[in-house]
Write a structure and sequence with these properties.
Pfam families: MFS_1. It contains 18 helices and two strands. The chain has about 425 residues and is an all-alpha fold. The chain has one domain: Growth Hormone, Chain: A, CATH 1.20.1250.20.
Amino acid sequence: MISPDSLEQEALQTAKNANKLAKFTEKKYVITLIFVTSLFLCWGIALTMGDVLNKHFQNVLGLTKSQSGLVQFSIFGAYGLMSIPAGLFIKKMGYKNGVLLGLTLYALGAFLFVPAANAASFSIFRVALFVLACGMATLETVAHPFMAALGDQRTSDQRINFAQSFNAVGAMVGPSLGAHFLLSAGHNTGEELLSVKQLYLYIGVVIAAIAIAFAMVKVPPVTDPHDGPSDQGGVVTVRKKLYQQKHFVFAVIAQFFNVAAQAGTWAFFINYGHEVMHFSDEKAAYFMTPFMGMMLAGRFVGTALMRFIAPNKLLAAFAIGNILMCIIVAQGLGWTSYIALLMINFFFSIMYPTIFSLGLKDLGPQTQQASSFIVMGMFGGALFPLVMGRIADTNIATAYYLPIVCYAVIFLFGYKLYKLR
């Protein structure tokens, strides 16, 4: 007679063997996975370029920090408005057409920088940023479930974190381009806006070329591992509505606060280097490269740690790390605080993709719709820099107390509120 302990040990061993057999992806998806991964790189460049533009417009157009926060409002406001329409489009037209729509809007927004620079108008620049960000929102809405579909659901956390690592590479490239083309430009308005026009013209051409190349790629049929009702022991599980899936609802809330903290921290990074460390604007912008490099390192480390630590528990631990870093940054202690500011991105690294992946777990045919709502949660990034900018107008270091609230919410999500049933 088999004892209950033996059955339990056998079940555990079976689960371990199943996890070992879960591949990262399949051979037929490799080309598609490469293209989808490149999308993460593309919007990483555009997102951090917005942070350089924040400081650049302060210099060229005479904006205050709270006014320049409208750059982030235009970008993340587009996420709030575009994510649901993008999700509906993707549901009807498929992943590939969703990618092509996103790339088209991205390129169009980049080309709109030309008339904006010619008119020297902050309002037109914001329209261009909004259109470009609509493309970014569409790409984010499609890329995460697309990446999750390119293999076993048990390795979806690994695939999304892997792809987000290239998003971190793009985030390193963006500030370097901005520092070279924008903050190193001449000191008259016409010359500085000419550099903006040229840079975004080049970006538009590259994105248009990627769209044309992807249009020619034959994407193999994708069977989303999230789709379909679960069947366990011959019993078909009836799925709850999205708003009844607590792990999804809390993921949307956590993503709102997560992107709020990210947008505020990144938007005034150059200001912190200039005002606390007394760097030139150009030097402070170049420091964004190692700043984003910390995020890249954190994602590789985080991806490796997830093989041994549950993703939600690791998320909670990294949130505590960032609470401590924000406290040190807010003291304005020179290099000690500046190193802590760099470390914020290390701990931030896994937050966005992990919250996204945890929110999509076991949602079946609701996955695409859920992805849209989680992307919509990024609207937090539109509001937070405006509030943080008002404090930063008085004291840039003190403004870094505000993200602590956001990381406390993320800690609660990872440690207590995320429960997958």
